[in-house]
C-alpha cells in the first residue's frame, strides 16, 4: 500500500572511492576488502530487500548493520518507489541503475582522483532536469565518503568538520589525508571557492559529483530537493551553493548525525541556509540487537536513512512500525546466519 | 495501492538489433532513425510514465502508440514494481537498468551479429537464479525482434512462422532475410538444434539471449516463468526447450497475436508445451483513438503487454479500468502534442 505521493521520488546514488581503503577511515564493511562491494550490496538491499549479485549484507567490524536495511524498512512500510543512480560502482550490482558516466574514484591523495567528475555532473544535471518529480530526496552510499566530503569542503574553503560512521571520529586522520590531497593537487584550502566542479574532481568522489549534478538540475526545473544524509549532503549543499544556487534546499538526517559533537551539522546547515529536518528512529526504545550499535553511535546515517525516516514521519507512520520492520529484515537476513 | 503479490516480479528486457533498419521489417517507430531509441523510450515510459532522456513516445508511422503505454497503465493500476534489464540498448535511457553485458545486435545477415550472446546469456542466467521472486514475468522491447525470432527458430529447426507489428506481416521479406543470415553463417535450418547459444549468436539478438538466460536461471531455482509477449517469446521458449528444460513454462500474450492468422501462436505454444494465456484488452469497446490502431491489427504486442493484461485480469481488475488509464496516459502524453 503506497502511503506516499507519486510526486515524491527517492534516489540513491551508489559509488566508490579508493580513499576508503585507508586504515581507520570507514566502518562500512566488516572487512576492508568488502568495502568496494558495500554500495552495490546497499543498492540491492534497498531494491530487493536482500543481496542478489553481491551475496553480502554489509555489517561493520563491530556488527552494526548497514543503514540500507532501515531505508528498505521505510520503503516497504510506505510503498515507496526508489531509483538507484550509478555514482561510480566498483562491483556489479543486481539493482537496476541509471548511468551518468561516473567511474570509481581514486584516493584523493592522487593528483586526479575523479576524472569523470565533470562528465558525471553534467549528465546527472541533465537527468535531474528531466526526471518527473515534484520533490526529490537524494541519499548516498559510498564508504570513505565523509573524508572526500571534508576534502571538497576544504577545497571550497568551508570551515566545517564532518561526521563519521565510526563511534570515534578519526578527525585528525581525515584532516591529514585531506592536507595530503590538497598538496597533491597543488591547492590551498579555499582555492576552489566558487568552482564546485574543480573541487569535485581534485578532492571529491564520483557520488558527490553525481549528487551535486542531480541537485543542480532538479532545482533548475523547480523540483524541490532534500539531501538525505549527513556530512556528504552538507558537502553537496556547499557545492550547489558555490555553483550559485541560492534557493530552497532541504537537509534531512538522523539524530545520530545531528547530535555528533565531533561535527557541527546544525551550524553547517545554518551557514548554508538549509532547511534541516532531524528524525530520531527511537532505536533506544527498540531493544533489539540490530539497533544497539546505532545507539552506541555507529553508522549514524547512510543510504538516505535520515530522509527515509523523515518521509515516514511526515506520512504519519509511527517509528515503532519502522523499527519492527527493520528488526524483521535484520532477523531474516543477518540474525538467521548467526 | 498494490493489487499484486510481492512475490511477482515483472522484468522488461530492452535492446536493439540493426536488423530493424531493413525496410519494411518493423512498425516500432514513426521514423527508421527513431528505431534505436524506441526500447530506451519504452523503458522510460514503463518506469516513469513518460520519456526522460529520450524525449520521445514511440508511435508507428500510422499513429499506433507503443504498447509501453498499455503496460504502464497496468503497472499503475496494479501498483506493480518493474525491473528493466539492458538487453543491448543503443541509446542512453533514463530508466534504471540491470547490466548483463549485452551490446546492440548487428544485422543477422552479418557473420557474427550477436557476439555478446554467450556472455549475456550466462550473466542473465546467474541473475535469474538469484533474483528473489516466486514468479517472473518477462517482457521485451526490440524493433525488428520478430525477424530475429524467426532466425533463431529456423536455426533451431522449428518450423513456425512469427507475427508482426505491421498489419500486413511481411513474411516473405523476413524469410528472405533469415535465409540470407543462415547463408552468411554457413548454416542450414536446424543446424543449431539443441544448441541454443549458437542459434542466438548467429541468428538472434541480444534481447533473446538475455531473456533465454533469465528464463533458464529462474526455472533452475524453481521460480515460475511466464514469457509475456508473442513471437519473440515463442523463440525464447524454443531456446529454453532446446537447452533441455522440460518443465512448466507460461506464455501470456494478447488476443491480437493469438488471432494473427499469418503466424500460428497457439500451435507453437502447443508444440513447445507452453501454458498459454490470451487476454483481450477489449480495445474495440474503448472507442478511443489510442486503441484504434491496435484494433486494426497494428503493434499487437510488446513491452510485456499481454502479460501485464493477464496480471490485471488475474487480480480481478476490469479491463475497462486498464483502458481508461491507458487512454488518460495517451491523452496526456501524445494527444496533448497534436
UniProtKB/TrEMBL annotation, chains A, B:
Keyword Aminoacyl-tRNA synthetase carried by entry: no
State which residue ranges cross the membrane. none
Q: Which UniProt keywords apply?
A: Glycosyltransferase, Transferase
* Molecular function per GO: nicotinate-nucleotide-dimethylbenzimidazole phosphoribosyltransferase activity
User: Coiled coil located at which positions?
Assistant: none
Q: Which HAMAP family match?
A: UPF0284 (MF_01086)
**What protein name applies here?**
UPF0284 protein KTS37_16355
User: Native species of this protein?
Assistant: Haloarcula salina
Amino acid at each position: 500500500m503506497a502511503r506516499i505521493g507519486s510526486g515524491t521520488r527517492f534516489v540513491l546514488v551508489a559509488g566508490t572511492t579508493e580513499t576508503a581503503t585507508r586504515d581507520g577511515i570507514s566502518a562500512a564493511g566488516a572487512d576492508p576488502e568488502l568495502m568496494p562491494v558495500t554500495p552495490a550490496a546497499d543498492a540491492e538491499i534497498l531494491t530487493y530487500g536482500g543481496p542478489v549479485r553481491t551475496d553480502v549484507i554489509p555489517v561493520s567490524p563491530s556488527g552494526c548493520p548497514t543503514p540500507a536495511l532501515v531505508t528498505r524498512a521505510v520503503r516497504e512500510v510506505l510503498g515507496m518507489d526508489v531509483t538507484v543512480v550509478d555514482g561510480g560502482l566498483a562491483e556489479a550490482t543486481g539493482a537496476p541503475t541509471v548511468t551518468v558516466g561516473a567511474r570509481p574514484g581514486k584516493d584523493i591523495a592522487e593528483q586526479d582522483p575523479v576524472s569523470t567528475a565533470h562528465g558525471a555532473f553534467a549528465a546527472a544535471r541533465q537527468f535531474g532536469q528531466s526526471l518527473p518529480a515534484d520533490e526529490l530526496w537524494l541519499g548516498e552510499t559510498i564508504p570513505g565518503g565523509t573524508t572526500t566530503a571534508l576534502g571538497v569542503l576544504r577545497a571550497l574553503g568551508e570551515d566545517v568538520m564532518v561526521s563519521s560512521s565510526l563511534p570515534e571520529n578519526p578527525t585528525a586522520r581525515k584532516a591529514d589525508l585531506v592536507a595530503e590531497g590538497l598538496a597533491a593537487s597543488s591547492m590551498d584550502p579555499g582555492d576552489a571557492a566558487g568552482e564546485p566542479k574543480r573541487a569535485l574532481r581534485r578532492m571529491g568522489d564520483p557520488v558527490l559529483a553525481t549528487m551535486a549534478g542531480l541537485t543542480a538540475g532538479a532545482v533548475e526545473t523547480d523540483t524541490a530537493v532534500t539531501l538525505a544524509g549527513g556530512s556528504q549532503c552538507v558537502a553537496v549543499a556547499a557545492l550547489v551553493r558555490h555553483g550559485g544556487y541560492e534557493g530552497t534546499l532541504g537537509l534531512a538526517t538522523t539524530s545520530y548525525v545531528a547530535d555528533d559533537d565531533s561535527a557541527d551539522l546544525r551550524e553547517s546547515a545554518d551557514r548554508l541556509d538549509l532547511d534541516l529536518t532531524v528524525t530520531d528512529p527511537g532505536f533506544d526504545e527498540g531493544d533489539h540487537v540490530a539497533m544497539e550499535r546505532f545507539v552506541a553511535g555507529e553508522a549514524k546515517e547512510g543510504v538516505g536513512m535520515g530522509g527515509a525516516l523523515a518521509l515516514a514521519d511526515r506520512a504519519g507512520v509511527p517509528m515503532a512500525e519502522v523499527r519492527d520492520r527493520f528488526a524483521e529484515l535484520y532477523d531474516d537476513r543477518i540474525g538467521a546466519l548467526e
